[in-house]
Structure of Threonine synthase 1:
Amino acid sequence: MNDLWVKHCGISHTGSFKDLGMTVLVSQVNRLRKLKRPVVGVGCASSGDTSAALLAYCASARIPSIVFLPANKISMAQLVQPIGNGEFVLSIDTDFDGLPEWVIVPGGNLGNIYAFYKGFKMCQQLGLVDKIPRLVCAQAANANPLYLHYKSGWKDFKAVKASSTFASAIQIGDPVSIDRAIYALQNSNGIVEEATEEELMDAMAQAVQS
């Protein structure tokens, strides 16, 4: 061998080879933002090195970012870097190794529940996951046409007149994507639940205090 080149990734900005791909990603996001595309920020779930690289380059480009880290399962160096860059860091009690058993989605016009199903189905078809998690559509009791339809055994859907609710974003009595939502729930062995106004406010209070 007459010529040998070695690339040492341990002396990059964050000390990881993840810098190689992340600088490309953030550069592309930066370009899209300058073109006035609707890219608000960047986020990722990471076991350490990816989050450090993402937040370092986003901080440099002044792009908002957020990362989710597994609680008590990363090194101090991996934790200090994202926090030190001043971005938003969340700790989650998980290891990111498995697909969730359940996914809960709020339901108003019901496009989101089908979008989640379609995404998981595509992942399954590509061989990325073995199964689709069970989907849960959560509705406000004051605007609950899908919940009532589910409780009737999926018989004779009827729109309702939505009443005022603290969950104003899902205050919809005649959802556009009702057929697709039913398809998604039936094919994921999903369920529909409702929350009263009191339950909504209790949950909000608990979230603020946590």
